[in-house]
Amino acid sequence: MSGHEDQDDLKPSNTPGYKPSAAKSAEEYAKLDANDESLARWKASLGITGDVPAGDTSGPKVTVLTLELDSPTLPPGKKLIFNLSDTAKLADTKKNPIVIKEGVEYNVRITFKVNHSIISGVRYIQLVKRAGIKVDKLEQMLGSYGPHPKGEAYAKNFDPEESPSGLVARSGSYNVRSRVVDDDGEVYAVSWITDWEWAFKLAKEW
């Protein structure tokens, strides 16, 4: 698969009839239609109140912090957490892939911080290839968010999946390309890298 085809696979799915609205800051949303009760409830769900201080909007809207693989079958104390700012460690997984036990239920968890503005229709997209051939694609909706009222990070748990099993599945490693993107097609960078890449292999045990 060519790099161009990879980019197509990493684009968010289109919703028929949906047209993204113009981006607004949290401050602009706070002032928008103040007497509309339904809009007020929606803004409150995003942590937007009537008093939103003007913040620095020069940096990235979103900082993607960690990616975690969790499973009830993991040995006690074992954690598979990527600090996405540690690009050297991510790159090292290409030589030393992380190990995932075959045939077990696991789920992905992502943490991120919204720095300013409102993000809408944000999705995590993951493309998995083995020996250069696409074998899987995951697209998970994260949702819409405003900056956290306390400046804290958001966490999103994805639906559980089952890892492949069998001798064929255990042969070779899998290369993964991940990105976080919104309905407008804006990609939220990790350490100024739009996509991050990592690798895993399947084994009989963790």
UniProtKB/TrEMBL annotation:
Gene Ontology cellular component list: cytosol; membrane
UniProt keywords, alphabetically: Cytoplasm, GTPase activation
Stored Gene3D superfamilies: Coagulation Factor XIII, subunit A, domain 1
Superkingdom assignment: Eukaryota
Residue span of region Disordered: 1-26
Record localization: Cytoplasm
InterPro entries: Ig_E-set (IPR014756), Rho_GDI (IPR000406), RhoGDI_dom_sf (IPR024792)
GO MF annotation list: GTPase activator activity; Rho GDP-dissociation inhibitor activity
PANTHER family: LD16419P (PTHR10980:SF3), RHO GDP-DISSOCIATION INHIBITOR (PTHR10980)
Assigned protein family: Belongs to the Rho GDI family.
Protein name: Rho GDP-dissociation inhibitor
The species this protein was found in: Serpula lacrymans var. lacrymans (strain S7.3) (Dry rot fungus)
